[in-house]
Amino acid sequence: MHDSSDAPIPLQGQLLIADPSLRDGVFNKSVILLAEHSLDKGGYGLILNHPTDQTVGDLIRSEDFQTLSKIPVYLGGPVGQEHLTFVAFWANVTQKSPAQLKFATRISAQDAIKHSQQSGTLVRAFAGCSSWTPGQLENELRKKSWIPVKPGIELLSTQHEKNLWAEILRNVSPYHQILAEAPDDIYMN
Fold first, then answer.
1. Predicted confidence (pLDDT) per residue in 60-81, tens digit
2. CB 46 within 8 A of CB 36
3. Which residues pair with 113 in a beta bridge?
4. CATH of domain 4-177
5. Which residues lie across from 33 on neighbouring strands?
6. CB 3.0-4.6 Å disulfide test: which of 20, 112, 146, 150 passes with 86?
7. pLDDT tens digits along 25-44
8. What is the CA radius of gyration of the chain?
9. Which ranges of the chain would DSSP assign to H, the alpha helix?
């Protein structure tokens, strides 16, 4: 019989909200889309709220990327920052169920162009990614380093800036609302 602390934690497709205790480094006030996760392969995600203030056109001047030149580039994480990844987000709307956020990661430039031409689809580019070895993310969750949250379709209309962390955290619980509104240094209050 397995101890419940070793039980799998289903996370793929969720947002990981950095706990306020993760104050140093790239994960400070980060919101990560966990695009892939399994016990045997680990996890792969992208930080949604760290804009680089650059666009694809600033980084790639090739004519093939001209259609994508105005797409903003975000820092996806500390791993492989020399690589650019395209992601598309859209709402899956059916009459039988409420709208759900859908996404496609690691898409080609051609697919990013196709997605960018579809109404209601948000395309972003990410330099680097966030990744975890098998078991690493589960251990970080048990230490309360991350707060997993199901993403809503409001992510399509929300600015993906630093304040996204507080906006999402505010809606988790009254306790998390207090954390979201606390100053960075509570002793400076």
1. 988 888 999 999 999 999 999 9
2. no
3. none
4. 3.40.1740.10
5. 15, 46
6. 112
7. 899 999 999 999 988 899 99
8. 17
9. 56-59, 109-116, 136-142, 164-170, 174-181
